[in-house]
Design a protein that fits this description.
70 residues; 37% helix; Alpha-Beta Plaits; globular; 3 helices; single chain; three-stranded antiparallel sheet; alpha+beta
Length: 70
């Protein structure tokens, strides 16, 4: 199996927002991976990049995902 390249299409400030974005993209059939600093998630900090969640999709879905997030 070949691993697909993932690209970042959004940076959310917190896990709740990231999960809303993820749900919207997944409803359109776009696979989503959320990447975040584990410390920010545990402590609930939104300072200096902690608490930021990167919304990642396979490269082939990048254009569609970006259009949906405008």
């Amino acid at each position: 199996m070949v691993e697909e390249e993932l690209v970042q299409v959004y940076t959310a400030l917190g896990e709740a927002t990231a999960n809303l974005i993820k749900g919207k993209l997944e409803q359109a059939g776009i696979p989503v991976l959320l990447k975040y600093e584990s410390l920010g998630s545990v402590v609930g900090v939104l300072v200096d990049g902690l608490g930021e969640v990167r919304v990642m999709v396979p490269k082939r879905f990048e254009e569609l995902a970006r259009q949906m997030l405008v």
